[in-house]
Amino acid sequence: MPEYLAPGVYVEETQASNKPIEGVSTSTTGLVGVTERGPLDVPQLVTSFGEFQRLFGGMLPPDAFTGPGGRVHSYLPHAVEGFFLNGGKRAWVTRVLPEQAERARRDMFHLDLANAAIGGSVLLRPALQDTGTAINLPRLYVLDPGNFGVGDWVRVGDGSRADYRQVQALGAAPSHTSLTLPLYFSHAAGAPTRDIAVTVAATLSPFTLRDDAGAGATELVLSGTAALITNLLPLTHQLLQVDGAEYVFAAAVVGLGATEARVLLETPLRLPHARGAQVDGLDIPAGANVNLEVAASAGDLLLFGPGFSTAGNLVVVGVGSAQEEVQRVGTLAQLPLDVPAYAAYPAGTIGQLVTLADDARTVTDLPTNVVVPLDTVAGMSAGMTFTFGANNQVVAAVNPALGLVRLAAPLPGPALAAGDAVQVGAVAANVVAYPTARVVPLDSVNGVETGMTFDNAGDTALVATVLPDLRAVVLATALAAAPAAGTAVTVGGNANTAQALLRPDVIPLDDVDGLAPGMSITIGADTGTISAVNTTVGAVALQAPLPAAPAAGSGAGFALRHTTQAAGAGAATLALDNRLGLDAGDVLRIGVAPDEEYATIARVLGERGVSPDAGVVQLAHPLSAGHASGAEVARQDVAVDTTRQPATLVLSPAAGGEQLLVGDGTTYGAVLPELVRFTTADGIAYFHRLDGAAANANPREIELDDRLGFSHAAGAVVVERNRLFAVQALDAGGWGDRLMIAAADEASSLAANASVLAANPPPGPGMFSSLQLATLTGIESGTILELLEPDGTPVAGAPLLKARAVDRASRLVLLDPPGLQAVHMNAVSNALMAGLNARVRSREWSLAVLLRQRPDPAVPTRNDNLLDQESFRQLSMDPRHSRYFERVIGATFTPGAPADDAGNPLRRWDRRSEGASHYIRVLDLEPVMANRTAIRLGPEALLDVLPSGLVRPARLPLSGGSDAVSLMGDAMYAGTDSNEPDQRTGLQALKNPQNISLVAIPGQTTAALQQALIDQCEAMRYRFAVLDGPPPDNDTLADVQDLRSRYDSRYAAVYHPWLTIPDPFPQSLANLRQVPIPPSGHMLGIYARVDNERGVHKAPANEVVRGIAGLTRYFSKGEQDILNPYPANINVVRDFRPNNRGLRVWGARCITSESEFKYLNVRRLLIFLEDSIDRGMQWVVFEPNAEELWARVRRSITNFLTTVWRNGALEGTTPEQGFFVKCDRTTMTRDDIDNGRLIVVVGVAPVKPAEYVIIRIGLWTADAEQ
Question: What Gene3D superfamilies would the database entry show (predicted)?
C-alpha cells in the first residue's frame, strides 16, 4: 500500500483491468544450410534476398558443392530467394560448414629498411606454375643469389602475378651451358646434347664467301679449289663454320662451276658476313651424350642439364634429330655499362664489339681496288667475275662512258696499277689511269660543250659528254693516244690542260657515301667546300681548288656539327646547325668524352634546306643524358670487330639497367675502352661503352617451400622480402579465393606540408629530439614523418622520423630515437637562412579489398569483374596510431574463441571480431611488441601496367579457402546442442531466436535431418517444419510414399515434387537447361504470403508458386488421389498451366495420423493461439491468485479470441460458437490454488479448409406455382 504521511496531492498510475494479448508472428522462418560466406552457426535475420546476398553471398554452383555420393549442398540460396519471391518477410539464416573448412589467406610483405643485406636477383629460366619445389620440379634457376639464405622469404615476379615463397634450399653449383647465339629450334626435356671441340675437316677447308651474306641469309655462295668443291657437292647436313662466329648445317649444295658452289642452309644466319670471310667444314666427333633436364625453347641461350663450360667448344643439341643444331659454348657474364640501358632491349639482341670514329675519308687516285678504269669495257656487265692474278671479285656496275668497272667489294691482294692485265668474265682488259684516250680530266670545263673539238697536237675527237663534277670530258671516239697529265690541249679552240683525276679541285676518296654539296672538307691544313659528288668514280669536286693537290693516302675530315638547342635526358630529337650529308641510319656522337653518347638517326624531319640545312633530326631512341646547346655532334664511321665473338643478351634488361647479361662475355672489357653495339631484331642499334671487365655470372638453383601459383618468364625478379602482416578472409570457404588485396602508398597524407619552425636536438642524455611545426593537424603518436625541402621535394639522404608524442600547446613533436640527424638539422637551418621553411609530411598507406564474381563458364571474360570493393585509407603500422590497420580493418580470430587474436572480445551478434571490413581480417606478424613501433611503411606497393598504359595497384589474390564439401553431412546440418547458446551449432542454433515459427533445411532429405527438424518443432511446440520430398531422379510415387512413411507428426508437412529453374551457371548461353531445386523455400514464402494476406487460419494451398519454370515431375489427379488422403497426407505441387492457372501448391495436410490435426492451417492456428496466449499471459505470474485476477485473465483471452473469431479463424456466427474461456473455481481445486496453480481452460473451433468442393446438380422442372 502507498504511504500518505504528509498533506499533499498524490498522483498515481493505476493498471488497466484488461491487458491485451498481441498475436505473434506466424511466418518468421528459420533456415539452415550452406552459403557462400557469412557467420558460421549464428542465426542472422535477413528481410530481403538482397540483404541475404550482402551477408551470405549469392547462388552456389552445384558442381562445386556436390559431395560424395552425389549429395548436393547448394540449395539454401535458392530457398531464400524463393521464400522472398513468394511473399516471405523475415528469415533467420544459419550457415553451416564442416569444422575442416578453411579461410583463404595470404601474407603481405615489405622491404625491411633496416636490413642492409637484402637479396635481389632474376630468373634465368622460365618458372612454370606449380613448379619450384623438390617434388614439383624444376627448381628456380636464379642469377647470383648470394644474399639469399635458407628460410628467407622471396618475391618471384611482380605486380598481381607475384608469388611469395620461402627458400627451402640453395644449389651448390651452376648447372647450365651458356651459348653465344640463340637456339634455332625448341628441344624437349631429355633431348641428347654433346660437347665437342672445333674439328675442321681437312677435305672441306678453307672456303671463302664469294658474296656478302646478310643476317637472315638462307644460302651462301662459296669459292674454293676444284677439289674442295668436288668434296662438298655430294654432302647434305654438313656442319659449316662461318667466319669462326656461327655454325650452320648445309641442307644441299649446287655447283656453280669448278671453283664455286651455292650452299642451301638448314637455318638462316644470325650475323652478317662480308665477302671473303672464311668458311670451313667441320666434323662432329663421337662422344657421350648428356640429356637436357629442362626443355629448351627456340631463342634460348641457356641449356640446363649439361654443364658444359669450356668456352669456344661447341655443343650439339638434339643429336641425330631433325632439329639437330650446333652452337658455340660461351661464358655467362654481365657487362657493366657506362651509360645505362636506353630501353628494355629484347632477349636475343646481339651485341658486337665496334670501333666508332668521327667521319673521315682517305684520298685515293684511280685505279683503286674498287673503282678500276680499263682500256675496254665492251662485253662486260654487273655480276661478272673480275680476276687479277689469283684474286677475284664480283663486278657491281659497269660505266661504259667512263670506261670503268666498280667492284662489289675491295679486290683482295695487292693494289692495282695502270698496265695490270685483268679479266672480267671472258673479256681480257688492261688497267689504265686517267687521263685515258676517251676520258680526259681538264683544268676547267667552263665553256666546254658537247660537240666541241678536243685537240691534242692534232689528235682530235669530238666531246660527247661534259662531266662538271669531275672537271672532265668524255670523247665520242678514242684519241690515238692518251694525253699525259699536264699536256696543253684545246677544246673548242680554247686552251686547256689535261690533268690527272686527283688534283686541287677534284679529290677522289675511298668513300663518298654521306657527302653532299656544301659540306666542308679538310685535308691536312687545307679546307675546301664540296660543290659536287660523283658516286660513280667516288670523287668530290670543290668550289675552289686547294693550294695543291693532296697526296693519295692523305686523310680527309669534315667540319663538326653543333646543337642549336639544349636536349634534355629523354629527348628523342636534336636541333642541329648543319644537316648536310645526314640521313636515316647514320650514327652520331653527341657531346665529348667522357660524357658523350651515341645514337642513330631515325629520320630527318622537315624539308631539306639549302646549305648548311639547319634543322631537326629524330633519333632512334631517347637520349640518356642532357646535352647543352652548342654540344658537339659528329657523324661516325662504324667498324665491326669480327674477331670477337658476339655478346647476345640472355635477358631483357630494365630500361636504365647498368648491367647486361650476355651468353658469352669472354674477354669483353679486359682492355678498356671498348664499345659494343646492340642491335635488336627490328634493326634499332644501341651503343654502349663498357665500364669494366665482364663479370662471370654465378647462378644457382633455389628450392622453394611451396610450388608457384603463377608462371614467370625468364628475367622475372626474385627479391628478398619480409612478412609484415597476414590477411584472412572473414569467413571460411572457397569464396575467399576470389578476394584480392591491393596495397598502395597513400597519395593524400593526413599531414601534408607542415612548415618546420625549428629542429631541436635532444636537450640531454636519455631525452628526445623534436620538431616545432606550424600545424600539428594529422600528426599523433606513431605518425611517420618525411622531411621535405621548401619546394616539396624530399631531403636527399634524410631518414624517416617517427612521432613519439605531440604537445599541441607548443606545437612540438617529440621524436622516437634516433630522431633528428645532421642531415635533418642542416636541411632545416639552410631553409631558415634562405628565409624559407622546410616541410614535413606524414607517410601512410592504403588497402583496397576487391571481391571478384564467381567464375562464369558461359562467359569467362567476366571472371575478373568485381562484385564489390572496400577501401581503407591513411593506415598506419604503429599500434599507437589511431589508424592502426589492425584496429581499423579488424583483427583475425578463431571461430569459437571468446576473443580475437588481438585480445578483444568478439561481437555478440555474429561472433566475429570487430572491424570495418566486411570481407577480411588482418594480423600484425611482428611478434615483438616493441618492434611494432619501429618505422614500418606498410606493405610494398606493387603495380600493374594495363594494356592501355595506365598503372594501378597490383591485386594480390588470397588462396587456400575451402568449403570442405567432401566432409559435409548430416552432423554438420543437425549441429550440436549446448547449455550455452553461443555454443550451439547447425539446426540447434535456431533455438536461440524465440520468434521463429517455421523451419526447414532446404534440399536435405535424409531421415535423420528431417526427424531432427520434427523433433525440434515438437520440443519447442510453437514451430512447424516444412519438409522436401525426395530429390530427382529418385522422386517417383513410391519414393515419396516411402519418405512419408518414416514420420508421424502434427508439426510437419511434406511437399513434392521438386521445382525447376533456369540454370544460374550455364555452360553455354545457347543451351540453357533447367535445374531442380527443393520446394521448401518457396512453400515457406507461400505460408508467409497467405498469413499476411488472409491469416494463419487460411490453408496455404491453391496458391501460385512464383519464381519457377516447372516441376521435376508432373503428377496427375489420379496420382494425387493416392498421395493426398490419409495415411499419405503428402502435399503436391501441380501443373495447371493447361488450364491457364499456372503452377500451384495443391495440398494443405500435416503428416500425422491424428485426424483432428490433419490440416496444417488448423495446426498452425493452434500454434498461433498457444504462443500468443503464452506470451500475453506472462504478466499473470506472481499476481494474487483470486477472482479478480481470474476475471482479468478471462477478459484478456476472450478479447484476443474474439478478434481471432472476427478475422474468420473460428467457426460460428457468434463468439460463443467459436470459443469458450473458463478460469474460475471450476477449473481449479483448492489444492491447485494452494500450490500456486492458475488453470485456464480454453476451447476453440478452428475453421477447416474446403478441401473437397462438392456441387450436386439435378434436373428440375419449373412449375407455375413454384
Answer: 3.40.50.11780
Contact criterion met (CB below 8 Å) for 388 and 422: yes
State the sign of the Cα–Cα–Cα–Cα dihedral 324, 327, 331, 336.
Answer: negative
The grid cell for 1123 is: 498421395
Q: What is the pLDDT of residues 673-730, one digit of tens each?
A: 999 999 999 999 999 999 999 999 999 999 999 999 999 999 999 999 999 999 999 9
CA 1116 to chain centroid, in Å, comes to 58
Q: Is-contact 75 33, C-beta < 8 A?
A: yes
* C-beta contacts of 1178-1182 below 8 A and 24+ residues apart: 1179/19, 1180/1238
Q: Spell out the residues 6+ positions from residue 1116 whose beta carbon is closer than 8 angstroms to its own.
A: none
Could you please report the per-residue DSSP string of 206-258?
A: -EEESS-B-TT--EEEEE--HHHHHHHTT-SSEEEEETTTEEEEEEEEEE-SS
Query: Does domain 29-101+964-1164 bear CATH number 3.40.50.11780?
Result: yes
Whether residue 675 contacts residue 89, with contact meaning beta carbons closer than 8 Å, is answered with: no
Helices 1160-1176 and 1187-1206 pack at an angle, to 10 degrees, of: 140
Burial of 565 (0-12, 13-18, 19+ CB in 10 A): middle
Task: Calculate the CA 642 to chain-centre distance.
Answer: 42
For residues 920 and 889, give the distance between their C-alpha atoms in angstroms, rounded to a whole number: 8
The reported pLDDT for the residue numbered 403 is: 93
pLDDT band at 146 (very low <50, low <70, confident <90, very high): confident
Whole-number Å distance between alpha carbons of 980 and 990: 13
CA 865/CA 856 separation, integer angstroms: 10
DSSP 179-209: ESS--SS-B-TT-EEEEE---B-GGG--EEE
How far apart are the C-alpha atoms of 1252 and 1249, rounded to whole Å?
9
The dihedral sign for the CA sequence 527, 531, 535, 540:
negative
- Sheet containing 333-336: order of strands: 659-662, 333-336, 695-696
Q: In degrees rounded to 5, what are phi and psi of residue 484?
A: -75, 150
Nearest Cα neighbor of 1066 from 867, 868, 860 is 860
> Who's near 1150: CB < 8 A, 6+ residues apart?
1049, 1050, 1051, 1052, 1053, 1129, 1157, 1158, 1159, 1160, 1163
**For 180-232, how does the pLDDT look when each residue is reduced to its tens digit (9 = 90+)?**
999 999 999 999 999 999 999 999 999 999 888 999 999 999 999 999 999 99
Give the CA dihedral 483, 485, 486, 487, nearest 10 degrees: 0
DSSP state of 914: -
Residue-level pLDDT at 354: 96
> According to DSSP H, which parts of 884-1001 are helical?
885-889, 970-974
Give the pLDDT band of residue 1000 (cuts 50, 70, 90). very high
CA distance 514 to 638: 13
Sign of CA dihedral 638, 643, 647, 648: positive
CA 438 vs. chain centroid, Å, equals 74
CB within 8 A of 1047, min separation 6: which ones? 1010, 1011, 1014, 1027, 1151
**pLDDT recorded at residue 1:** 61
Three-state DSSP at 148 gives coil
The DSSP 8-state label assigned to residue 484 in this structure reads P
**For all residues of the chain together, what is the average pLDDT?**
94
- Whether residue 369 contacts residue 686, with contact meaning beta carbons closer than 8 Å, is answered with no
pLDDT tens sequence across 1188-1199: 999 999 999 999
d(C-alpha 885, C-alpha 902), whole Å: 12
Model confidence, pTM = 0.84
- Using an 8 Å Cβ cutoff, are 380 and 395 in contact? yes
Per domain, the residue ranges of the chain are: 1-21+1187-1266, 29-101+964-1164, 183-328, 360-480+526-557, 726-745+870-957, 754-821+828-843
Distance CA 963, CA 100 (A): 8
